[in-house]
Amino acid sequence: MKSLLFAVLLSSPFLLFSQSPNAVIKYNEAVGQSKLKNYKEAISLYSKALEIDPLYHAPYFGRGSAKMALKDYSEAIRDFSKCIKLKDTHAKANYYKGYCLMKTDENKDALSSFTKAIKLDPSLEKAYYYRAFIQMEQKRYELAVLDFLAYNKIVKDNEKAYFNLGICYQKQKLNDRAIAAYSTAINLKEGYRKPRLERLRLNFKEKNYNAVIDDCNFLINANNKDDDAYNYRSMSHLKNGDYDLAQADFKILVSLEPDNIRHWTNKGINSIKQKNYKEAVTDYSKLIELEPKKVAHIKNRSVSYIQLEDWDNALTDLNMLIEMSPNNGDAFYNRSNVHLQLKENDKACEDMREAGKLGFDQAFNYIAGLCGQ
After folding, report:
1. Cα–Cα distances in angstroms (integers) from residue 184 to residues 159, 177, 195, 199, in the given order
2. What is the C-alpha to C-alpha distance for residues 68 and 59, in angstroms, rounded to an integer?
3. CA 357 to CA 359: how far, in whole Å?
4. DSSP output for 19-30
5. Which of 92, 95, 147, 288 can pair with 117 through a Cys bridge, CB separation 3.0 to 4.6 Å?
6. Nearest 5°: CA angle at 202, between 201 and 207?
């Protein structure tokens, strides 16, 4: 989990304490070093304050904060725990302890610490935020939603919080709410790619293809090599029946990823939709190169050759197809028609009979005419 940067909060060095004056002096010196980000020196001074007065809770909190800044999370946990033992109402010590526990993958204990921190001080917004992340990791999306909503009431302009709220709604199949959360994230930061990508994916599922195209246009304007955006825009054009626009995007996609089977497959489908069978032959030839044993590619190229009345190449493909899939009734039916075009009537009759035997019912309409029965 990517952590947010946050300032290490320190108690004011000038409050009066009942502790030893010498301990307070060392504590105040340590606070000064912490403010200068001289954390190692600060840790040394906090330790000296504790040597003088081991019951002084503030140096434990300060030393823990300095160790946390140095990413020494295990040692920071020890100091925050000691601070809490001496002052169990210390909300920030509970919060920081929770953060360190989260960083050391002790999520169960981290949840407990964040919960205590929130009870002590409901304004600790990041305690909600991090608790929500842990709930997400544990797939407790309803609880994560509650925490993100609580966080968003306090901090209204964090686009990442709204993005993650959208993810939680999406995991619960609350797509309308997810889209609304993603839209808020986008409104807060127009160039934030992740929520826009998730929003267009959801809109694609909901068949809101024009909305998908709008988001894809934005992403492509930002990055003209965004294959995700081209993919969803091409498929949205295809679903809308705008085959020429779809084809333009498919051409870009296969130029970006020349060996991507999915892109070539979609391009081949679109070429047939356009009745551009010459282009379809090119598409399926590439697919056969990538997947030489895929029956569907050979079948679709053979059909494209038939539409082009390229009987010899159609026959070559159908021979290959039948060799690979000998129980394919429609392949025998198509080859029968090719033989007929090549004036090979006996072969046409033989294939039509075989198509009928294999359950291709349409063949029975032609057997008598072809075979003289």
Report:
1. 7, 11, 9, 11
2. 14
3. 5
4. S-HHHHHHHHHH
5. 95
6. 95
What CATH number was assigned to the domain covering residues 16-87?
Answer: 1.25.40.10
Counting DSSP H helices and E strands in the chain, the numbers are: 21, 0
- Measuring CA to CA, how many Å separate 36 from each of 8, 30, 46, 66, 170? 12, 10, 15, 11, 44
Residue in 276, 201, 215 with CA at minimum distance from that of residue 244: 276
**Spatial distance between the Cα atoms of 322 and 44, rounded to a whole number of angstroms:** 82
CA angle 352, 323, 331 (to 5 degrees): 35
Q: What is the pLDDT of residues 274-283, one digit of tens each?
A: 999 999 999 9
- Kindly write down the DSSP assignment for every residue of 187-230, as one continuous string: HH-TT-HHHHHHHHHHHHHTT-HHHHHHHHHHHHHH-TT-HHHH
Q: Domain map of the chain by residue range? A: 16-87
For the chain, give the number of residues: 373
DSSP letters along 145-194, please?
A: HHHHHHHHHH----HHHHHHHHHHHHHTT-HHHHHHHHHHHHHH-TT-HH
CA angle 247, 335, 304 (to 5 degrees): 10
- Residue 27, pLDDT > 90, answer yes
Q: Tens digit of pLDDT for each residue in 192-251?
A: 999 999 999 999 999 999 999 999 999 999 999 999 999 999 999 999 999 999 999 999
Token pair, residue 195, equals 């929520």
The token pair that represents 276 in the structure block: 């551009």
